[in-house]
Amino acid sequence: MRPLGALEEVASATTLSFEEFFQAEHLRLGRALYLLTGSAAEADELTQEAMVRVYERWDRVRRMDSPQGYLFRTALNLHRSRLRWVATRARHILHPTPSPDPAEVVQSRDSLDRALASLPTGQREAVVLVEWLGMDQDEAAMALGIKPGSVRARLSRAKADLRRMLEEDDA
Amino acid sequence: MPELHDLLERQASTYEPSPELFERVLQRRDRRHRNQRVAAGVLGIAIAFVVGWWGVHAITSSTPKPADDRSVEDKVTTPPLPEPDPVVSNALAYGADGDVFLADAHGANAVKIADGAPVDHAECTPDEHQASYEVFGTAWSPDGRYLAYWDRGCPVSEGTYTVLITDAKGNVLASFPGQAWQISWSPDSKRVAVMDHWAIEGAGDDATIGVYGLDGTRQAALTVPAALVPSGDYSPVWSRDGSSILLPGVQVPLDGGTPSPLPDLSWYGVYSPDGSHHAYKDRSSLVVEEADGPDAQKVSGSWVFWNVAWSPNGELVAYEGGRNDGLLVREIATGTDTSLLDMTRAESIGAIEFSPGGDRILFSKWDGHGHNSIWSIGVDGSDLRRLAGIEWTDLRP
To answer: Which residue range(s) make up the domain with A77?
Structure first.
């Protein structure tokens, strides 16, 4: 996973300690999750939980071709699980439109943040992984557990929507 | 949007993780470890109680029923159905814009056998349920008599759509609800497996695989415990001997046995028709290796399933190469790669399938500008034909 390269400079994966892995990866993961959730607290929580899960399986994970890929896949699955949980809860209490973070999707965020927040989760994930983390589409597909074609489709739609929203905002 | 990365970078850099994050990870992991040990103790007690109850029940029961040690296969008798003639014409089946087509081996003379609306346009009101048909993966049964595909027009309930079993003319023989993507045919063409409940890894709920007969009756509901639920967009695949259903990293026996994790984490591969070899993409390279055994338990699953395909006789593997490499075919005996199709940097392959006769390859191509299309080409690169084109939708032969 080329752009996440900090790890490659630390040590070969099989000799890597979990702490080294954590130090190399947690900031990028946290920032990616921040872009996805729009909430620093949420990003902290998801980073923490994803790292715990990797730590619990560290003996296996460190021997994988891409421990970073596993970490991101775990974090993204946790994020989706949480969205599903929120949606279920919202239906139970008859909220019409479940939002991952309704309290924080407000004017205080700048236009990019608002535009990102308005994208469907899958599209937002594709944008963050490819456009910000710099993964290629195969890597993003692996991290998301979907086909590269789906990443491409999500990304194209997301970029078109973002462009439109940002232009409207500028206007 | 050249500045998008910069905008994202600026936004991302406003986040700083909590300085105690690493300590909190260690603490949470230790706490969970302790809780697991406590839970293991409680589970031990619960098992002891159940075993004890069963012992008492068995002793006090005056007319115990004979143990039914038949397999699911033996217990279930599929009602006789008219057997349509197998399709011998090497017909290609594909879906586009809510319709399903059969074409001849060269992709010509396409006949629409299922007429639906594009999935985004299906009308779903209390009075109207418009169908939108979708082919995902191999629609043909192995014996070439039946097709399995989706009606994605109007959901039965959230995330649940309708699976259709039809004959080669599109006459519906059975329909039943299902979730997720792949509808997997049993090796004997008498049953299909599909997700009844597609669970998300880490969400805490069990997944369920449904096994259905050709008449649409559910013959088995196989539970995959939450702890074994795979990540990503997984779908069921039959094992080669038909005795179990495989998900990425999990084997679920059809005889009701306990699902077990598979030893290998690398599940991005596809078996050769005889099970002797295993092909997978390692980034842009194709790796073909001998399988671990006669029925090795690696799984064909998730998206790479669509980017590598074996010819029916196991002599060729078709795959998408790296950027600009286009569609390639590897001859297994010699290890030689032949490029069938050059592509621009923006273009890419979405899905690859061999025709049942093995002389043609069906694939979908993304042009990088919002358009998908289905093509057919001979295995020697001759006679390239465009079958259909649509926008956006994932298109799968």
So the answer is: 2-170
The ipTM of this complex is 0.71
What residue segments make up the domains of chain B, in order of their start? 71-87+140-262
**Nearest chain B CA: its distance from A33 CA (Å):** 9
Alpha-carbon distance A56 to nearest alpha carbon in chain B (angstroms) = 7
Tell if the CB–CB gap between A138 and B283 is shorter than 8 Å. yes
Contacts of B296 (CB under 8 A, 6+ apart): B271, B275, B278
Q: Which residues of chain B have pLDDT under 70?
A: 1-2, 31-82, 85-90, 105-107, 119-121, 137, 201-203, 231-233, 262-269, 271, 275, 281-284, 291-307, 322-324, 345-346, 350, 368-370, 389-397
Provide the CATH number for the domain around residue A123.
1.20.140.160
Number of domains composing chain A: 1
pLDDT in tens, A82-105: 665 444 433 333 333 333 343 333
For B318-347, give the DSSP string. EEE-STTT-EEEEETTTTEEEEEE---TT-
Find out whether A9 and A23 touch, Cβ atoms under 8 Å.
no
Angstrom distance (rounded) from CA A34 to CA A26: 12
Whole-angstrom distance, CA of residue B370 vs CA of residue B395: 12
Q: Which residue out of A84, A132, A144, A156 would a mutagenesis test of the B interface target, given it has the greatest number of B Cβ atoms within 10 Å?
A: A132
What's the half-sphere exposure (Cβ side, CA atoms, 13 Å) at B213? 14
